[in-house]
Amino acid sequence: MTAVPDAVADAGREAYARIVAALIRVTGDWTLAEDCAQDALALALERWPGDGVPANPGGWLMTVARNRALDVLRRATVERRKLAERARLLEPAHDAPVEEVVDDRLRLIFTCCHPSLALEARVALTLRTVAGVPTADIARAFLVTESTMTRRLTRAKAKIADAHIPYRVPSGPALTERLPGVLGVLYLLFTRGYDADGRPAFADEAIRLARLLAELMPGQPEVAALLALFLFQHSRRDARRDAEGNLLTLEKQDRSRWDRSAIAEGRSILAGVVTDGPYALQARIAAAHVAETTDWTAIAQWYDELARIHPTPVIALNRAVAHGYAFGPERGLARLAEARAGGGLDAYPFVLAVEADLTARAGDRERAVTLFERAAAAAPSPAEQRALLERATELAS
Amino acid sequence: MKYMMFVCSDTAPDTDTADEPDIHQWVAENDARGRRLDGHVLAPTAAATTVRVRGGELLLSDGPFAETKEVIVGYDLIECADLDEAIEVARTHPMARAGRIEVRPFADV
User: Fold this and answer.
1) Which alpha helices (H) appear in A113-172, and where do they start and end?
2) Is the pLDDT of residue B71 over 70?
3) Which pLDDT belongs to residue A194?
4) Which of A7, A9, A117, B76 has CB 3.0 to 4.6 Å from B5, enough for a Cys bridge?
5) pTM to 2 decimals?
6) Residues A151 and A201 in one domain
């Protein structure tokens, strides 16, 4: 039997965004919406152990949250505007067409990811409001104090209200323009922010949000591709480090620890993506890395395409790695020299590690040892430092 | 919702000058839609005087309130449904390319 706290957590994960999104639409008050959703979860923790878990936990939470919002607004009836909101809240939710409910969560995502908000605020707001992550947890993962994070969230919500950022999903060309920004926020949410063990803190939330977005926007191949990309990357989460916490390169990972069902799901999603958007290309590359044998020539070609549409220093670096495996280390070193030419990789700690690896494979052991030692000195974490020093020792022996 | 557009110069204007919108056309279109309530080009900052009163004393200084390379060269006051519409109005202003535009909502008071 599932414990009640688990049942509340499950129902909350499923219903939180729906409740917040609906209450924001009718009240326009973000804080009120969040508070009422939280109150509903708290009441569930109090009531469900005695009363039992209701047949429709999400519906129960929605009703409680809506009534709570109604109470708050009733107490504030002096304001005419709030009265009008109350009138709208009184309309029973089940009369609303299903599509409208779906739209609410999509509206919420697009508003949280509005490009007029600072990028860090978009990430935090999406985690807080759509995924329901407590402010303290977001603050910890982004290495700021809880009060700093609270201020960041408050400022973002104030801007939404003061500047009249619309609560709306853009349509037509505006959607094409805005969707990549939303996917970018989800990607940051997946990759940035670490827990105490140095593991991604919000990968599960990012996957859940990508799943939701893919469900709400079935006609958008890049959304599906992003979900597939997340699934492939996440499938290796338990194999990335050895027992001592050292980072392991792909070829050293214990493949039996990869999450086969995530890989299978990613593959089946990706099979339906026929376009060549940036996430489709990255998902194909990620899929190739978890295949039985790695097709480096295909990976190199996908990186060529990715570098053409997204000429960023990091993609140029990864392209050099792929070329090194596909066409030999000398070709990789040539691509690496091109990638470094603009100076865009100067502050990037992994460049030296890549150069060291390519140099070792090209046969210049002495130079490779020096490079691995320099790479270790520049490594951002002790785990990465250990892994690089180990390579230097291996080569020197 | 009223938004003030501060039209500013920029040290790094767009180098792509193809299909540059025409300011007269922009003004005519937004005036015709009743969206632009007011606006004007300002004289160079060399003509500016900054006024302060401190302890009852009038203090004047020559020039703008902040000496920066980017300066406010004009303004447009627009009425829009929301920020998305205001951003669309600003993006079609020629100075969004040749300079930059700060879109600031009127305070809700």
Assistant:
1) 119-125, 135-141, 146-162
2) yes
3) 72
4) B76
5) 0.85
6) yes
Confidence class for position A74, pLDDT limits 50, 70, 90: confident
Question: With 60 as the cut, is the pLDDT of residue A95 above it?
Answer: no
**How many domains is chain A built from?**
3
Residues of B with Cβ-Cβ distance to A163 under 8 angstroms: 83, 105
**Domain range for A273:** 221-294
Give percent of chain A with pLDDT exceeding 90.
66
Contact A83, A26 (CB under 8 A): no
Which residue carries 């039997």 as its tokens? Answer: A1
CB-based burial label for A244 (10 Å; 0-12, 13-18, 19+): exposed
Helices A173-191/A203-216 angle, 10° precision: 160
CB contact under 8 A, A163 and B81: no
For A164, nearest residue in chain B (alpha carbons)? B82
Shortest alpha-carbon distance between residue A162 and chain B (Å)? 7
Domain stop point among A217, A238, A268:
A217
On whether both A189 and A241 belong to a single domain, the answer is no
Interface test with A, best of B4, B80, B82, B83 (most A CBs within 10 A): B83
What is the ipTM metric for this complex? 0.88
* Same-domain status, A58 and A120: no
